[in-house]
């Protein structure tokens, strides 16, 4: 064919190629990928306008039923294992917030990854010169979930103005840190569940199970459950724990024990899920052509 | 330095196996039987920078498995390979940043976002400087006529449009090694031709080395002077395309045009062509004869008939390849 010529510079290559620049280079690369995926996903909000309206409606209904549930409980008592009504409102807000972040990027990405393993498109994630876990975890952004994030923030702030707890700057920083720990714990848990798709190709229900656990158990303080269930919800399926600790921090009842255990648990879960990820990758065979 | 070196590469899969039916299905839940499948056996070759090599074989021959090992997706069971000086399955970012894998049957562009946004994701992942990114997108979109497509979400594109966008997206980082697995599958003839000439131009301009699998021989004929043929996971042939035809084609076809309305007497024709089956056409006939006998038969035909034109043809590559596979299948099956 005539006239087809490549004239751009095809030889210079990137100024800093993937994999160069040592640890700092790797981190910069990872951060750039994260930023690009998130910002593009959110910028594409317009593609989902009708979905967005639906998620506002959904968030309002969910919030209303949860507040209604709270009012029923507190019609009978003024104190639930040491938590007052507005303390629990803060917890509901934290629950919304964490659920929102998961729904924004983690869950849709994991769903896409499992689908990709089944269809073989996960191959493309693996041939990219970047951290495979990072790529798999941020590949799809569902901006409608921002509604939950915003509702969560609003409820947390509203609840905090009603709670008689005066938070110092240190408390606020601690709250944010425990929130981050909670997110890391839940993220690692979902990642480990989804990684099982490398062996059991059809695993869509795994995330549904997680969702109902997180949705039901996660919106109560882990301290109200009987001992054995508390242990399960802290170590085996750490959803309630992940929500409870930041809520404790935000309502001025954080103990050093729970702060440290949140940090420890976050590290443990992250390291274990990452180890499991690379263990699974070595066994990856892909879908056949 | 060679671009790709492959030495005694093996890949064995363990695949679960069960009979049909409920009983076997329940049984398989408890104890899974597994069977070894030798997808690739003792394959070795080298490819120089800038070469375009056709990688041929029937379905299940081990082509995709080999490409997946070379692109770092699969660990081999044994054997070694280096591509651009890297061991592919170590998945060093420095290697992956210079390689592209394009599979005609699978998309990597994100379904719901505009094509250009997917490209921006690739820009971040491959760390492509803005100026290069802009120039390359412009150029690729000119070459492949993508102008109209870049702002549309991928789900709104036709199959051919999507493939063009896939290919452009995979080349933004100017890879030095390209693995193309059936890049033209399912596309119409014009689009196939467009993609073919584009790959040729990319190779010419960048000096990238290309390994191509395709079931369309037109792709291979247009792009590859060298072919590697594998079958049942084993290397069958590695050399020039013409040599493949020369070596494996047992027959040639003699096409004869006869002068005027010559009444062709089948009884008389039989001895002239050693009794080979003759296919009549409106103005003459054609006959397939073993290669070695071609000159003799042609001479006899010229002497014995009022021939106005006589052409000796190599068989089409498709049928040569088919013959190769059939012959080796029979060999393997027969023990």
CATH architecture of the largest domain in chain B: 3-Layer(aba) Sandwich
Percent of residues in β-strands of chain B: 25-35%
Q: What is the terminal separation of chain B in angstroms?
A: 40 Å
Percent range of helical residues of chain A: over 70%
Secondary structure tally: strands of chain B: 13
Low-pLDDT ranges of chain A: none
- In the predicted model, the low-confidence regions of chain B spanning at least 5 consecutive residues are none
Report, as a whole number of angstroms, the end-to-end distance of chain A: 31 Å
CATH superfamily of the largest domain in chain B: P-loop containing nucleotide triphosphate hydrolases
Describe what you observe in this structure.
The complex is a heterodimer of chains A (289) and B (335). In chain A, 71% of the residues lie in helices and 0% in strands. With 289 residues, chain A is mostly helical. The longest helix of chain A is centred in the middle third of the chain and has 35 residues, at 85-119. Chain A is built from 11 helices and no strands. In chain A, helix 3 runs antiparallel to helix 8 and helix 7 runs antiparallel to helix 10. Chain A has helices at 22-43, 49-76, 85-119, 122-126, 132-138, 146-162, 169-195, 204-217, 227-236, 239-250, 256-282. Chain A has one domain. In chain A, 38% of the residues are buried. Chain B is an alpha/beta fold and 335 residues long. Chain B has 2 domains: 47-245, Rossmann fold; 250-313, 2-Layer Sandwich (Alpha-Beta Plaits). Chain B contains 12 helices and 13 strands. Chain B has helices at 22-30, 63-70, 93-96, 115-126, 130-143, 159-171, 189-206, 217-223, 241-248, 266-272, 294-304, 317-333; strands spanning 4-17, 33-47, 52-56, 78-83, 99-103, 177-181, 209-213, 226-231, 234-240, 251-258, 278-280, 284-290, 307-313. Chain B has a 6-stranded mixed beta sheet, sandwiched between helices. The longest helix of chain B has 18 residues, at 189-206. The mean pLDDT of chain B is 86. Classes of the chains: A mainly alpha (289), B alpha/beta (335). At the A-B interface, helix 1 and helix 4 of A face helix 3, strand 5, helix 4, helix 5 and helix 7 of B.
